[in-house]
Amino acid sequence: MNKLANVAADVDIAGPSPRRVSVPVIVGGVKVGGGAPIVVQSMTNTDTADVQGTIAQVAALARAGSELVRITVDRDEAAAAVPHIRDGLDKRGINVPLIGDFHYIGHKLLADHPACAEALAKYRINPGNVGFKDKRDTQFSAIVEMAIKYGKTVRIGANWGSLDQELLSKLMDENAASDRPKDARAVTREAMVQSALLSAVRAEEIGLSRDRIILSAKVSAVQDLIAVYRELARRSDYTIHLGLTEAGMGSKGIVASSAALGVLLQEGIGDTIRVSLTPEPGGDRTLEVQVGQEILQTMGFRTFVPLVAACPGCGRTTSTVFQELAGEIQSFIRDEMPEWKAKYPGVEQLNVAVMGCIVNGPGESKHADIGISLPGTGETPAAPVFVDGKKFRTLRGPTIAADFKEMVIQYIDHRFGVGSKTAAE
Asked: How does pLDDT run across 327-380, given as a tens digit for each residue?
């Protein structure tokens, strides 16, 4: 018994490292960094010149929970469309801040389209392609000066695929002449960090304040991303945007992003995140928002939607009823959340369990706020429902799924509805 006690005493229930202290930044009314909740953002894949199509996608991303949305501004037609997109969103009551993604000619587009410069909440520029040779500093300076003029934030986003080649060549030459040269990958990571930091220093020299600067340094390999961001965080207190660039499609993109962001977030690094998933042709762009939210929620950093616990299934659960019900409840909750947030304050704290057999079903259901234990193969065709840890009712017959769904709605209304709070007071 003493040995068991000693083992228990040695177990360390670890939590995340303290959040890295960064300079707080305001992006269109959304606080990023400075200890604020980690912000989820996304990006459209519509042609920005298609005003209605872009409004629709921004609205869908915002409805899904994206707190910042980036749009491509690559040519005059796109820049001219931005103020109309902003107006269209405002008329729908969608106030999500818009970020303009600029490459190569951003300085010209912002100068030629002042309404675009005004409508955007943030400008994203890449120091690797903002300009080349003698034009680099003048074009970079022009964008920063526009941000100062209009009171906008700038994200300086270095990227593995478009790294400043002059800086990289310089570091490679210095490394080759070193007595203890590093491998090329390590030098490239150093170039990423320096590109972001040197650009931030230059922006400050021009006059952009630190509370208007966000840094990112995106790569596509998990270990490289972790190494680059650790160093970026160690050397600065700028607000940091996390993201694994070109993460990929489906489970590959989700797993890679979760692995990379999970490590960094656990270490207290990161103030805003994006999960850059490649959608299936015609696929739902909002999946990247959902994944970003689930990373933060499963790690305990934020709460966005009620959790639905469901068993994985085994030979005892040859019926698909519990799988269908779990999926239906989960989809139903996510679809209703935009309205529920206003109608039922605190509903995102709800825990629901949909279990498939008697082995763990009753126990897991008791741990949830409301849970159901469906009958497994060969079990009595009855489904006990537990509410707040106690058996509440047993459901039977062909309408079990519909009956439980209705019970979830009733529970939410009873616990989180305005009337319930008034009565409690």
From this structure: 888 888 888 888 888 899 999 999 999 988 888 888 889 999 999 998 888 888
Asked if 282 and 47 touch (Cβ cutoff 8 Å), the reply is no
How crowded is residue 181: how many other Cβ atoms within 10 Å of its Cβ?
13
Burial class for 298, CB neighbours closer than 10 Å (0-12, 13-18, 19+): exposed
Nearest to 68 by CA among 289, 282, 334, 238: 289
pLDDT digits (tens, 9 = 90+) for 118-175: 999 999 999 888 766 666 788 999 999 999 999 999 999 998 888 888 888 999 999 8
- Record the tokens describing residue 405, joined without a space: 């769904």
- Assessment of whether the complete model's pTM goes beyond 0.70: yes
What's the CA gap between 340 and 343, in Å, rounded?
Answer: 5
What residues are paired with 269 via a beta bridge? Answer: none
What is the rounded distance in angstroms from the CA atom of residue 41 to the CA atom of residue 33?
Answer: 14
Give the distance, in angstroms, between the CA of residue 72 and the centroid of all CA atoms in the same chain: 19
E strand or H helix at 8, and its extent?
helix 2-10
